[in-house]
Amino acid sequence: MDILETAAYDRRQRRNMSCALLFSLSPFFLSTAVYFYLWTPGSPASIMSAGVKSAPILLLAAAVLSWNGGQSVLGVVGGLLFSAVGDCCLVWPELFLHGMGAFAVAHLLYSLSFLSSRYVAYSSSSSSWIRFLYLILFMVGGGVYIYIYPSLQKAPNSDIMLPAVGVYIVLISLMGALAIRTRHAPTMLGSLSFMVSDLSLALQVFKVTDPIEHGNAIVMVTYYLAQLLIAVGDVKAVEKEDSAKWKRS
């Protein structure tokens, strides 16, 4: 009877948490809708456009911080804050390298978070298919770099851009590999969506392909989705860790 009551209590707790989490994410959804409503192709860069673009990520960071507290500052919350800095920088084309640097730091912080103890509950011993996915991920990253390399050579600051993009691809591939290691669905899907977003952005920024119809929408939808999934994954991981500690006590 005690076991049944505990299971029922756990189910109620999960339902209550899901409802509360959805409510706390409502500012993110609202600000994302505002961004897509106000966004106009070819609009000039401005502080207002930078604020509107980064607002969803800042609100997402606030939501994660309210759930997880300070333990996520040097992890997902920190990654979200650096992502918001990157969002602001990318509004101005001349600050592209600065934005890429901010996102590189974000990927490092996400990677550190995925290595933390709260993801241990998901990541059991590594199996051969997981290692195979690691290999595939880094091969795809290398293939992307080779594919865009000729376009990078044509960039005005190619002497900086070539190594910078290479390092960035390594970092985002590492983040994706560590996300797969967690075997936590939101975290894995979020990292893969982030990679799709960055690939779409790279193809457009470096003019690798012809202009993509609704290109910005593709980049931003996959980007906001990625950040949302990574944030939700972190909240769920902390909640599961706390629940496990409570059961052991």
Automatic annotation (TrEMBL):
Keywords: Membrane, Transmembrane, Transmembrane helix
Compartments (UniProt record): Membrane
Domain of life: Eukaryota
Membrane protein topology class: Multi-pass membrane protein
Membrane-spanning parts: 20-39, 45-65, 72-93, 99-117, 129-148, 160-180
Keyword Transcription included in the entry's annotation: no
Listed Pfam families: YhhN (PF07947)
Enzyme class: hydrolase
Catalytic activity: a 1-O-(1Z-alkenyl)-sn-glycero-3-phosphoethanolamine + H2O = a 2,3-saturated aldehyde + sn-glycero-3-phosphoethanolamine; a 1-O-(1Z-alkenyl)-sn-glycero-3-phosphocholine + H2O = a 2,3-saturated aldehyde + sn-glycerol 3-phosphocholine
GO cellular component labels: membrane
GO MF annotation terms: alkenylglycerophosphocholine hydrolase activity
EC numbers on record: 3.3.2.2
Family under the similarity heading: Belongs to the TMEM86 family.
Protein name (database record): lysoplasmalogenase
Organism this protein belongs to: Perca fluviatilis (European perch)
